[in-house]
Amino acid sequence: MRDHRDAEDLPLPDVWTGRATNRVQWLLALVGAACMALGIELAVAAPWTSGTAPLVMAVVGCIAAGLLVLFGTLAFVHVDLRLDQECLEVRCGHIGLPRRRIPLSQVAGADFTPHVTPRQWGGWGYRWRPEKGTAVVVRRGEGIVLSLWDGHTFTITVDNAESAVRVIRDRLSTITPGTAA
Fold first, then answer.
1. Do residues 178 and 116 touch, judged by C-beta distance below 8 A?
2. pTM of the model
3. By the 8 A CB rule, do 103 and 151 touch?
4. pLDDT of res. 43
């Protein structure tokens, strides 16, 4: 881990929170909104002479594509991480879905990784790869890799990941492994 001035001397918080944000996702959300606007414009003002079926298909297609892109990107604009005495909770986007709650009793270890990229996981979002485990990747950069007692890993991109790893490791030293929380 990188050396931060006096990082080891600071007291650990009872509840650690962190966040990672990806502003590029907002551009994709604008594309989704533009598709929806095009669908609405077609429905309201388009003089289609070839019948209503093509018009309905175009309107529904634009609005459906716009909604899919808009809400699919807004779900992963940011990720929030909350770490208390018993569990780690990950929430994505403004609605907080998808959400994952991992009791610390199921965590075998935590490691800092300085460089997580969407390319490693096949894109942004909530990802699963058989050889790597599960991840929530909203941006490139530092992250946490949790090793779970069941042999799986869970990676989260979050700002100040080193601090989170330090808090997790401290909490793990007081928890009995594999017990239900």
1. no
2. 0.76
3. no
4. 86
- Residue 67 has phi, psi (to 5 degrees) of -65, -45
Run of H or E residues at 65:
helix 52-74
Residue 128 tokens read as 């699963």
Q: How many residues does the chain have?
A: 181
Q: For 26-39, write each residue's pLDDT tens digit.
A: 888 899 999 999 99
Work out whether the CA dihedral 131, 134, 140, 141 comes out positive or negative: negative
In the chain, helix, strand, coil percent, each to 5? 35, 30, 35
Q: With beta carbons less than 8 A apart as the criterion, state whether 13 and 167 touch.
A: yes
Q: 54-104 pLDDT, tens per residue?
A: 888 889 999 999 999 888 888 888 899 999 999 999 999 877 888 999 999
E strand or H helix that includes residue 64: helix 52-74
Q: What H or E segment, with its residue span, contains residue 95? A: none
Above pLDDT 70, what percent of the chain? 91
